[in-house]
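Thread title: Can someone regenerate the structure for this chain?

I was given the following input by a collaborator and told the matching structure tokens would be attached. They weren't. Posting the sequence so someone can regenerate them.
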Amino acid sequence: MAKYVGLDQDTHGITALGRTVLDARVFGLIPETQDCAGWDAGQMQALMSKVNHLWDQYGNVPSALPPELAERHDRVYTEAIARAKARGWNAELDDND
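Best answer:
Regenerated them for you:
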């Protein structure tokens, strides 16, 4: 990966990098308008490490988040899933997956 295309341009739906961007928004590490387009692998890895450190505090479980973060998580992910589905993303696995 030379540069990440950014969450808004990612045609694969919500990928691992996309979840990193969403989680970074939830935790306030980046603004909700930041999609990380053009970030290199090192920048994405550094962001992922920060996100993972914060998730560790909550056992990697959204229901363990404090109310403010839980509400933001729900909103950020609901909006992202709706956008991805509108672009044709289907999170369901079929017999070929």
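The CA atoms of residues 3 and 40 lie 4 Å apart.
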